Amino acid sequence: MNILGIDFEDWFHPELIQKYITDETKHPEVIRGIHDILDLLRKKDTNATFFVVGELLEFKPELLDLILDDDHEIAFHTMKHTRLDTPNFKDTFELELKKFHLLTNGKSKGFRAPSFSLNKTSSWLIDLLEKNNYVYDSSVVPAKTSLYGMPNAQKIPYKITSNSLENNSNNGKIIEFPIMVTKLLGKSLPVGGGFYLRTLPFRLIKKSFNQYEKQKTPGVFYIHSWELTPKYMPKLKLSLKDSFITYHNLDSVYTKMEELLSLYEFTSFEKYLKN
Questions:
Q1: Which domains, ranges and CATH numbers included, belong to the chain?
Q2: pTM assigned to the model
Q3: Helix (H) or strand (E) segment spanning residue 74
Protein backbone atom coordinates (compact mmCIF):
# COMPACT_ATOMS: atom_id res chain seq x y z
CA MET A 1 0.00 0.00 0.00
CA ASN A 2 1.31 3.43 -0.97
CA ILE A 3 0.55 6.81 0.59
CA LEU A 4 -0.81 9.83 -1.26
CA GLY A 5 -0.41 13.37 0.02
CA ILE A 6 -1.98 16.30 -1.80
CA ASP A 7 -0.28 19.60 -1.02
CA PHE A 8 -3.33 21.85 -1.19
CA GLU A 9 -2.01 25.25 -2.19
CA ASP A 10 -3.10 28.11 -4.40
CA TRP A 11 -1.35 29.67 -7.39
CA PHE A 12 0.60 32.21 -5.30
CA HIS A 13 2.05 29.70 -2.81
CA PRO A 14 4.86 27.93 -4.74
CA GLU A 15 8.23 29.20 -3.56
CA LEU A 16 9.49 30.15 -7.01
CA ILE A 17 6.41 32.31 -7.68
CA GLN A 18 6.33 34.25 -4.41
CA LYS A 19 9.14 36.64 -5.35
CA TYR A 20 7.21 37.80 -8.43
CA ILE A 21 3.97 38.85 -6.75
CA THR A 22 2.60 41.23 -4.12
CA ASP A 23 0.03 40.65 -1.40
CA GLU A 24 -2.51 42.67 -3.36
CA THR A 25 -2.57 40.08 -6.15
CA LYS A 26 -3.09 37.04 -3.91
CA HIS A 27 -6.67 36.10 -4.65
CA PRO A 28 -7.30 32.33 -4.42
CA GLU A 29 -8.16 30.60 -7.69
CA VAL A 30 -6.86 27.02 -7.48
CA ILE A 31 -9.06 26.45 -4.46
CA ARG A 32 -11.96 26.16 -6.91
CA GLY A 33 -10.48 22.88 -8.13
CA ILE A 34 -11.23 21.01 -4.91
CA HIS A 35 -14.29 19.34 -6.47
CA ASP A 36 -12.26 18.10 -9.46
CA ILE A 37 -9.70 16.55 -7.11
CA LEU A 38 -12.32 14.94 -4.90
CA ASP A 39 -14.10 13.58 -7.97
CA LEU A 40 -10.88 11.96 -9.20
CA LEU A 41 -10.23 10.30 -5.83
CA ARG A 42 -13.84 9.16 -5.62
CA LYS A 43 -13.71 7.69 -9.12
CA LYS A 44 -10.55 5.75 -8.22
CA ASP A 45 -11.83 4.76 -4.76
CA THR A 46 -8.73 6.28 -3.16
CA ASN A 47 -8.18 8.02 0.16
CA ALA A 48 -5.58 10.76 0.48
CA THR A 49 -4.12 13.22 2.96
CA PHE A 50 -4.63 16.90 2.15
CA PHE A 51 -1.74 19.01 3.45
CA VAL A 52 -3.60 22.32 3.48
CA VAL A 53 -2.09 25.80 3.60
CA GLY A 54 -4.08 27.21 6.51
CA GLU A 55 -5.03 30.58 5.03
CA LEU A 56 -7.13 28.74 2.43
CA LEU A 57 -9.30 27.40 5.24
CA GLU A 58 -9.76 30.97 6.44
CA PHE A 59 -10.84 31.98 2.95
CA LYS A 60 -13.07 28.93 2.40
CA PRO A 61 -13.92 27.23 5.75
CA GLU A 62 -16.12 24.63 4.02
CA LEU A 63 -12.95 23.02 2.65
CA LEU A 64 -12.62 21.15 5.93
CA ASP A 65 -15.97 19.39 5.61
CA LEU A 66 -15.52 18.76 1.88
CA ILE A 67 -12.28 16.89 2.61
CA LEU A 68 -13.41 15.05 5.73
CA ASP A 69 -16.85 14.10 4.39
CA ASP A 70 -15.16 12.09 1.62
CA ASP A 71 -13.14 10.20 4.27
CA HIS A 72 -9.86 11.94 3.49
CA GLU A 73 -7.42 13.30 6.06
CA ILE A 74 -6.53 16.93 6.69
CA ALA A 75 -2.98 17.86 7.70
CA PHE A 76 -0.89 21.02 8.07
CA HIS A 77 1.28 22.80 5.48
CA THR A 78 1.85 26.07 7.42
CA MET A 79 -0.55 29.01 7.28
CA LYS A 80 1.05 30.86 4.32
CA HIS A 81 3.45 28.32 2.77
CA THR A 82 6.51 29.77 4.50
CA ARG A 83 9.79 27.87 4.41
CA LEU A 84 10.67 26.57 7.87
CA ASP A 85 14.24 27.86 7.58
CA THR A 86 13.02 31.43 7.15
CA PRO A 87 14.83 33.51 9.83
CA ASN A 88 12.93 33.81 13.12
CA PHE A 89 10.04 31.66 11.91
CA LYS A 90 9.96 29.27 14.88
CA ASP A 91 7.78 31.43 17.17
CA THR A 92 5.45 32.30 14.31
CA PHE A 93 5.11 28.65 13.41
CA GLU A 94 4.10 27.71 16.93
CA LEU A 95 1.29 30.26 16.75
CA GLU A 96 0.32 28.89 13.33
CA LEU A 97 0.05 25.37 14.77
CA LYS A 98 -2.42 26.60 17.37
CA LYS A 99 -4.40 28.53 14.75
CA PHE A 100 -4.65 25.52 12.45
CA HIS A 101 -5.75 23.42 15.42
CA LEU A 102 -8.71 25.76 15.89
CA LEU A 103 -9.49 25.91 12.16
CA THR A 104 -9.61 22.10 11.92
CA ASN A 105 -11.16 21.32 15.31
CA GLY A 106 -7.97 19.49 16.27
CA LYS A 107 -8.19 17.05 13.35
CA SER A 108 -4.64 17.55 12.07
CA LYS A 109 -2.03 15.05 13.22
CA GLY A 110 0.41 15.32 10.32
CA PHE A 111 2.67 17.96 8.78
CA ARG A 112 4.65 18.62 5.62
CA ALA A 113 7.13 21.49 5.32
CA PRO A 114 6.76 23.83 2.34
CA SER A 115 9.50 23.08 -0.19
CA PHE A 116 10.57 20.18 2.07
CA SER A 117 12.45 22.79 4.12
CA LEU A 118 13.16 20.60 7.14
CA ASN A 119 16.92 20.71 7.74
CA LYS A 120 19.43 21.36 10.52
CA THR A 121 18.38 25.02 10.66
CA SER A 122 14.73 24.08 11.17
CA SER A 123 15.14 20.93 13.27
CA TRP A 124 13.08 22.65 16.00
CA LEU A 125 10.05 21.54 13.96
CA ILE A 126 10.11 18.04 15.40
CA ASP A 127 10.02 19.25 19.01
CA LEU A 128 7.08 21.54 18.27
CA LEU A 129 5.15 18.80 16.47
CA GLU A 130 5.67 16.52 19.45
CA LYS A 131 4.66 19.28 21.88
CA ASN A 132 1.43 19.80 19.93
CA ASN A 133 0.50 16.10 19.81
CA TYR A 134 1.29 15.51 16.17
CA VAL A 135 1.89 11.93 15.07
CA TYR A 136 3.89 12.14 11.86
CA ASP A 137 5.83 14.33 9.47
CA SER A 138 6.56 13.96 5.74
CA SER A 139 9.16 16.64 5.01
CA VAL A 140 12.25 14.59 4.18
CA VAL A 141 13.46 13.89 0.66
CA PRO A 142 16.33 11.38 0.88
CA ALA A 143 18.17 12.90 -2.08
CA LYS A 144 19.95 16.18 -2.83
CA THR A 145 18.33 18.80 -5.06
CA SER A 146 18.99 22.51 -5.61
CA LEU A 147 16.18 23.48 -3.21
CA TYR A 148 16.15 20.77 -0.53
CA GLY A 149 17.07 17.23 0.39
CA MET A 150 18.82 14.97 2.90
CA PRO A 151 20.74 12.43 0.78
CA ASN A 152 21.77 10.40 3.82
CA ALA A 153 18.28 10.06 5.29
CA GLN A 154 16.56 6.70 5.59
CA LYS A 155 14.28 5.77 2.72
CA ILE A 156 11.69 3.91 4.80
CA PRO A 157 9.50 5.36 7.58
CA TYR A 158 11.41 5.99 10.81
CA LYS A 159 11.15 7.71 14.18
CA ILE A 160 12.66 11.17 13.92
CA THR A 161 13.97 13.60 16.55
CA SER A 162 15.39 17.11 16.33
CA ASN A 163 18.84 15.61 17.00
CA SER A 164 18.43 12.77 14.52
CA LEU A 165 16.77 14.01 11.35
CA GLU A 166 18.15 11.36 9.00
CA ASN A 167 18.11 8.13 11.01
CA ASN A 168 15.76 6.22 13.25
CA SER A 169 15.90 7.16 16.93
CA ASN A 170 14.48 4.94 19.65
CA ASN A 171 13.60 8.13 21.51
CA GLY A 172 11.54 9.48 18.62
CA LYS A 173 7.81 10.00 18.97
CA ILE A 174 7.19 11.52 15.52
CA ILE A 175 7.13 9.12 12.56
CA GLU A 176 8.89 10.45 9.46
CA PHE A 177 7.58 9.34 6.06
CA PRO A 178 10.29 10.16 3.47
CA ILE A 179 9.33 10.87 -0.14
CA MET A 180 9.90 8.07 -2.66
CA VAL A 181 13.31 7.99 -4.38
CA THR A 182 15.20 5.68 -6.71
CA LYS A 183 18.84 5.06 -7.62
CA LEU A 184 20.16 6.42 -10.89
CA LEU A 185 23.86 6.35 -11.79
CA GLY A 186 24.68 5.60 -8.17
CA LYS A 187 22.79 8.59 -6.76
CA SER A 188 19.38 8.96 -5.15
CA LEU A 189 16.83 10.65 -7.37
CA PRO A 190 13.43 11.92 -6.16
CA VAL A 191 10.56 10.23 -8.00
CA GLY A 192 7.78 10.81 -5.48
CA GLY A 193 5.56 13.22 -7.40
CA GLY A 194 5.30 16.90 -8.26
CA PHE A 195 7.96 18.21 -10.64
CA TYR A 196 9.40 14.70 -10.97
CA LEU A 197 6.11 13.25 -12.18
CA ARG A 198 5.92 16.03 -14.76
CA THR A 199 9.52 15.76 -15.95
CA LEU A 200 10.94 12.25 -15.54
CA PRO A 201 10.05 9.34 -17.84
CA PHE A 202 6.74 7.92 -16.61
CA ARG A 203 8.14 4.38 -16.82
CA LEU A 204 10.76 5.34 -14.20
CA ILE A 205 8.03 6.44 -11.79
CA LYS A 206 6.16 3.15 -12.28
CA LYS A 207 9.37 1.13 -11.95
CA SER A 208 10.02 2.86 -8.61
CA PHE A 209 6.57 1.96 -7.31
CA ASN A 210 7.21 -1.65 -8.31
CA GLN A 211 10.52 -1.63 -6.44
CA TYR A 212 8.90 -0.26 -3.29
CA GLU A 213 6.16 -2.88 -3.53
CA LYS A 214 8.76 -5.66 -3.74
CA GLN A 215 10.42 -4.25 -0.63
CA LYS A 216 7.00 -4.06 1.11
CA THR A 217 7.67 -0.37 1.76
CA PRO A 218 5.08 2.37 1.14
CA GLY A 219 5.87 4.66 -1.76
CA VAL A 220 5.17 8.13 -0.35
CA PHE A 221 3.87 10.24 -3.22
CA TYR A 222 2.89 13.90 -3.35
CA ILE A 223 1.10 16.10 -5.84
CA HIS A 224 0.09 19.76 -5.71
CA SER A 225 -3.50 20.83 -6.11
CA TRP A 226 -2.45 23.29 -8.83
CA GLU A 227 -0.79 20.46 -10.77
CA LEU A 228 -4.03 18.49 -10.80
CA THR A 229 -6.14 21.50 -11.79
CA PRO A 230 -3.92 23.62 -14.10
CA LYS A 231 -6.93 25.44 -15.59
CA TYR A 232 -7.05 27.46 -12.36
CA MET A 233 -3.28 28.13 -12.35
CA PRO A 234 -2.44 31.48 -13.99
CA LYS A 235 0.87 31.51 -15.84
CA LEU A 236 3.04 34.40 -14.75
CA LYS A 237 6.09 35.74 -16.53
CA LEU A 238 8.95 34.10 -14.61
CA SER A 239 12.61 33.50 -15.34
CA LEU A 240 13.26 30.62 -17.73
CA LYS A 241 14.39 28.31 -14.92
CA ASP A 242 11.57 29.22 -12.52
CA SER A 243 9.01 28.89 -15.30
CA PHE A 244 10.29 25.45 -16.26
CA ILE A 245 10.24 24.13 -12.69
CA THR A 246 6.78 25.55 -11.98
CA TYR A 247 4.86 25.09 -15.22
CA HIS A 248 6.59 22.41 -17.29
CA ASN A 249 4.23 19.65 -18.44
CA LEU A 250 1.40 20.67 -16.11
CA ASP A 251 -1.19 19.39 -18.56
CA SER A 252 0.16 15.84 -18.26
CA VAL A 253 -0.40 15.45 -14.53
CA TYR A 254 -4.09 14.58 -14.33
CA THR A 255 -3.81 11.76 -16.88
CA LYS A 256 -0.67 10.38 -15.23
CA MET A 257 -2.34 10.44 -11.82
CA GLU A 258 -5.38 8.64 -13.24
CA GLU A 259 -3.10 5.86 -14.45
CA LEU A 260 -1.14 5.62 -11.20
CA LEU A 261 -4.35 5.45 -9.16
CA SER A 262 -5.52 2.61 -11.41
CA LEU A 263 -2.24 0.67 -11.26
CA TYR A 264 -1.36 1.03 -7.58
CA GLU A 265 -3.15 1.22 -4.24
CA PHE A 266 -2.92 4.43 -2.25
CA THR A 267 -4.27 5.56 1.09
CA SER A 268 -3.90 8.45 3.53
CA PHE A 269 -1.17 8.62 6.18
CA GLU A 270 -3.84 8.29 8.86
CA LYS A 271 -5.30 5.10 7.42
CA TYR A 272 -1.86 3.64 6.74
CA LEU A 273 -0.92 4.09 10.39
CA LYS A 274 -4.14 2.43 11.53
CA ASN A 275 -3.58 -0.70 9.41
A1: 2-274 (3.20.20.370)
A2: 0.97
A3: strand 73-76
